Amino acid sequence: MNKQNIRIVLVNTSHPGNIGGVARAMKNMGFDQLVLVEPRQFPAEEAMWRAASASDILEQATVVPSLEEAIADCQLVVGTSARGRRIPWPVLDPRRCAEQMHVAAQRDETVAVVFGREDRGLTNEELQLCNLHLHVPTHEDYTSLNLAMAVQIVVYELRMLAVADTLPAQADAEWDAPFATAENMERYYEHLEQTLAQIGFLDPAAPRQLMSRLRRLYGRVRLDEMELNILRGILTETQKSQAKK
Fold it and tell me: What is the pTM of this model?
């Protein structure tokens, strides 16, 4: 995916700090195409301060007088919406919407993701300029999202698609010590059972299922040889301490 094909468009943003926060969110995920439609205050010192190390995105941001101009050369326009509309429109969550934007960008199409005003979002007229509507499924008890947070969600989903081929399918299998053998684990269980009996935690006459449950616990963890030696050392010192009493 060519990230240069995806632009973030902010419409009539009222607070310059939010513009800075958006720039920072974009840079975190590797995007740098920012277009501002009639921002209330820009450039602004607070925007630069909030952007932190993403000030370069603000410096190269494009400022235009209308949404029409911001998206004029785009083949796919996605408008973010928090409200239901009277006229049905294709609505997707960020993950599924990102998939469509990713495909479009791979085809070398220009994609715009449009975010509205902090207090009332995009108007119906502005949303009708969009091919798709994107809705973040927030919890019904508190649906309000900060502008930078909303942008972060969208660019994160796009980032995940961009790096999908480089992400490990499972946890890193490399380890600094070999895993314990079955034979050494059996020796550990014998040592553990002896120690638990010595300190009075396990009654050999009525062991119940204590050792079975401990085996299950350690089986889930998969100890390596170094970890096993540490535990054996703890048991040995525990036994020495008990012998002194």
Answer: 0.77
User: Cα(98)–Cα(101) distance, rounded to whole angstroms?
Assistant: 5
Give me the sheet containing 62-64, strands edge to edge: 62-64, 34-37, 6-11, 111-115, 76-80, 132-134, 91-92
CATH class, domain 182-244, is: mainly alpha
The tokens describing 115, both together, are 């975010």
Q: Say whether domain 3-166 belongs to CATH 3.40.1280.10.
A: yes
Q: What angle do CA 167, 168, 172 make, to 5 degrees?
A: 140
3-state secondary structure of 152: helix
CA–CA dist 26, 57 (Å, integer): 8
Q: Taking the domains of the chain in order of start, what are their residue ranges?
A: 3-166, 182-244
Q: Which of 96, 104, 84, 13 has the alpha carbon at shortest distance from 50?
A: 13
pLDDT tens string 58-86: 999 999 999 999 999 999 999 998 765 56
Residue 236 DSSP SS3: helix
Return the structure tokens found at 68. 């029409």
